[in-house]
Automatic annotation (TrEMBL):
The lineage of its organism: Bacteria, Bacillati, Chloroflexota, Chloroflexia, Chloroflexales. This is Pyridoxamine 5'-phosphate oxidase-related FMN-binding. It holds the Pfam family PNPOx_N. Keywords: Oxidoreductase. One of its GO terms (molecular function) is oxidoreductase activity, acting on the CH-CH group of donors. It comes from Chloroflexus aurantiacus (strain ATCC 29366 / DSM 635 / J-10-fl).
Amino acid sequence: MSSPRITRPHFPPGYVERARELLPWSHVEQRLTHAINYWLCTVRPDGRPHAVPKWAVWVDGKLYFDGSPATRHARNIATNPHVVIHLESGEDVVIVEGIARAIDTPAPEVATLVAQAYTTKYATMGYAPDPHQWDNGGLFAITPHTVIAWTAFTEDPTKFVL
């Protein structure tokens, strides 16, 4: 994955006046790698929003999550792949906008990396997937195109364009 373009998000005049610095991309990657719960936001075919908490892993510049293709969010992604996913904190914020897609049969090396990342993060909570469990679907990948992050809203709001 190439390095993102880093800039300040657009704000109305006077909204963020003390902005001092921009966050490094490494901060975003660290937060996406170590977070436990992620909020996935999709859009139903009739235009209504849908949000669901997910477990996920950050591997090679993509966020992977799994689940049944019959879920509401999977069906939403099948008709509209544009998603937002964000972490739980309202103070150390990471909001990812991107394109999600179902992976019908992941490449063996991708499945292995994703399974290892899940096991490292979630084994103590009872989840350690086998890489072959996604051979017939059930794995999804989000490719981010824009990320907004901050640790102090008026001081370091940062926009990453990928």
